[in-house]
């Protein structure tokens, strides 16, 4: 259990129990919970609330319909993709050696089939270039889908851009958007941001852009390859996808 804790610092007793089972150790989950308490292996939770970043700047372009309408589930890989932008803060000393608050932005694209992050970009400011780069990678990664794809987002300024909507139309991809001010219309991405910040960000202080950027990159790799999800049968997103591919 101590070895598992080193690899998975944020596993609670349920995930710990499933990881033990993967390794051939069948133990009752209540016993796992007791042992974690005895060995001081409980997760130290940080739930600091912060203002949600909003990229909404009014109607500056095309507002797409809410095509998904909260029907996030799909049995087809790469059919339904969602995206959003979130903001992080880090601290950096200026020329006078005074700590200044700086910001970092993450733009990920998620496959709703298995919650896998299929592309992302990290930047110091919200900008169209990085979002278009991440979009291009997501389109390329999902081109094997046998059905017409849907790319979902909120009504942020970048997703209303002509370049963004034109790119999707050119590739014959449906564009869908959440209703204004309704975060539940994109709850899978909101959930990912919550997990990411809970396990990587809240309760920690990052003292440079590169330190925070590298931590996020490392976490996304861990999330895709190793972090098990109950709805995926206690498998990681990539484990789930690869297992299903074997039977196709």
Automatic annotation (TrEMBL):
Location of the Integrase catalytic domain: 83-245
One protein family per Pfam: rve
GO biological process, one term: DNA integration
GO molecular function: nucleic acid binding
Task of the protein: Involved in the transposition of the insertion sequence.
Matching PANTHER family: TRANSPOSASE INSF FOR INSERTION SEQUENCE IS3B-RELATED, TRANSPOSASE INSO FOR INSERTION SEQUENCE ELEMENT IS911B-RELATED
Name assigned to this protein: Transposase InsO and inactivated derivatives
Organism: Isobaculum melis
């Amino acid at each position: 259990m101590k070895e598992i804790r080193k690899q998975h610092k944020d596993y609670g007793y349920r995930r710990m129990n499933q990881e033990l089972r993967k390794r051939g150790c069948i133990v009752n989950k209540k016993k796992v919970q007791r042992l974690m308490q005895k060995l001081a292996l409980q997760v130290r939770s940080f739930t600091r609330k912060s203002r949600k970043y909003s990229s909404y700047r009014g109607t500056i372009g095309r507002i797409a319909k809410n095509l998904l309408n909260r029907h996030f589930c799909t049995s087809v890989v790469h059919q339904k993709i969602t995206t959003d932008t979130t903001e992080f803060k880090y601290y950096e000393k200026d020329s006078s050696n005074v700590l200044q608050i700086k910001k970092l932005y993450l733009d990920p694209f998620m496959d709703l089939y298995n919650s896998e992050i299929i592309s992302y970009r990290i930047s110091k400011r919200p900008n169209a270039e990085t979002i278009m780069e991440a979009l291009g990678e997501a389109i390329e990664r999902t081109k094997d889908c046998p059905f017409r794809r849907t790319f979902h987002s909120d009504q942020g300024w970048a997703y209303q851009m002509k370049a963004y909507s034109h790119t999707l139309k050119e590739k014959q991809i449906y564009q869908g958007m959440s209703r204004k001010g309704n975060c539940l219309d994109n709850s899978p991405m909101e959930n990912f941001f919550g997990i990411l910040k809970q396990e990587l960000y809240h309760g920690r202080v990052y003292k440079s852009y590169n330190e925070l950027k590298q931590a996020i990159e490392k976490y996304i790799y861990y999330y895709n390859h190793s972090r098990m999800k109950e709805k995926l049968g206690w498998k990681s997103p990539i484990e789930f996808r690869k297992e299903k591919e074997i039977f196709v």
